[in-house]
Amino acid sequence: MSDIDTASVNGKAPSPRTRVRRIAERGHYDRDKLYAILDAAYLCHVAFADEHGVHCIPTACWREGDHLYIHGSNGSRMLRLAAEGAQVCVTITHLDGLVLARSAFHHSMNYRSAMIYGAFEVVAADRKAAALDAFLDHIARGRAHEVRAGDRNELAATTVLRLPLDEAAAKIRTGGPKDDEADLGRAVWAGVLPLALTPLAPEPDGTPPGDAAPDYVTAWARRAGR
Amino acid sequence: MSDIDTASVNGKAPSPRTRVRRIAERGHYDRDKLYAILDAAYLCHVAFADEHGVHCIPTACWREGDHLYIHGSNGSRMLRLAAEGAQVCVTITHLDGLVLARSAFHHSMNYRSAMIYGAFEVVAADRKAAALDAFLDHIARGRAHEVRAGDRNELAATTVLRLPLDEAAAKIRTGGPKDDEADLGRAVWAGVLPLALTPLAPEPDGTPPGDAAPDYVTAWARRAGR
């Protein structure tokens, strides 16, 4: 298949480099699936190249509209390069389970992943505080209005970047093993061992002032107690 | 600090590109910490460059001795390039929690990450079956001897690659928020919201033959039931 052909069984890839090639039926190009994968993520892996070669750096991320945001210290190599418009590939992967087939060959994993190609844009100084508020609200809704806001020096020391989601693709595998017909009678356990990134009990830093934990902490504790 | 200076507070980085630059005290260069991070992982992100630019692809991984292994179809772009000796950066990240500080600026995440630089080596045909057995045993100990082994065609269609761990570094953050002294009295909840990749109840594919699930499935179910 030519690299120019971006058609797929699940819609059209936005560019040749976003077309899912390996097992094309797992590729998805619609916004809903992409947004769901990004919004479930706390971190992404950013790949970029400099004069030392290729790097792959994990960093926190959040989505607003049709952009994925990252931030960090002005001193970060990655942020400096990205701010200069370097081409990047940003990948987010949620591992949902181990797929145990009846033959060694058909073992697999269930996952939801997203890849975004492009170049980051620098978020302007007067938009930085609002973008960082959105990040805090992604982590813990309402928290941006509870904590001490960034002061002038803290904001000046922070770079916020955003990557347009124009050139993005999702890849998803769900369900049980796809065994060969001839193996279905084998006396071996087959199925999925599911995995999920799960909240554990909150760990307060010393005695919290006042007596009420915010909603997002009590909700976290509830989910941890399941 | 010069790029040539690979010294760090936690030992010596094996090369300039593996020296942790941002928050150097989180960098670790000893084998035990590196192995623990790799052995807890089911997948890694592989960054590499080709004529279309930089890519970042998630794939299953396992460690044997002083190598990280990956595998896949001979048809995979990534595996073909990696097999040709392309320089890569492989990153593994475990997210352990959200760190909620009293100021917006000091929010952070707890994590254990590892980065490995280098070039993959092709595992020879007569070593492939043993390497893939080790992969299955990483996923589910003992399973390699229960399932139908790969036949000649399946093994021939599979590329197995390994990356030496010579040029690797770990980066780890643990513990609560590091707030400014002046913020400690603020009336805001601070602490860690921990996260862990957690087993959920096994999902058998139809009625398993026989009546005994293997040990790794019953152990998984037990961990899921906590």
Walk me through the structure.
The structure is a homodimer of 226-residue chains. The first copy, chain A, is α+β, with helices and mostly antiparallel strands. Chain A has two domains: 7-192, Roll (Pnp Oxidase, Chain A), CATH 2.30.110.10; 196-226, no CATH class. Chain A has five helices and 14 strands. Chain A has helices at residues 31-39, 77-83, 125-139, 152-156, 215-224; strands spanning 7-8, 11-12, 27-28, 43-50, 53-60, 62-64, 67-73, 87-100, 108-119, 121-122, 158-164, 167-173, 191-199, 203-204. In chain A, the strands form three sheets. In chain A, strands 3, 4, 5, 8, 9, 12 and 13 form a seven-stranded antiparallel sheet that branches. In chain A, strands 6-7-11-10 form a four-stranded antiparallel sheet, sandwiched between helices. In chain A, a hairpin with a 2-residue loop joins strand 4 and strand 5 (53-60). Chain A is globular and about 65 Å long. The termini of chain A are far apart. Mean pLDDT of chain A is 91; it is low at 1-6. Chains A and B meet through strand 4, strand 5, strand 8, strand 9 and helix 3 of A and strand 4, strand 5, strand 8, strand 9 and helix 3 of B. Strand 13 of chain A pairs antiparallel with strand 14 of chain B, so a sheet runs across the interface.
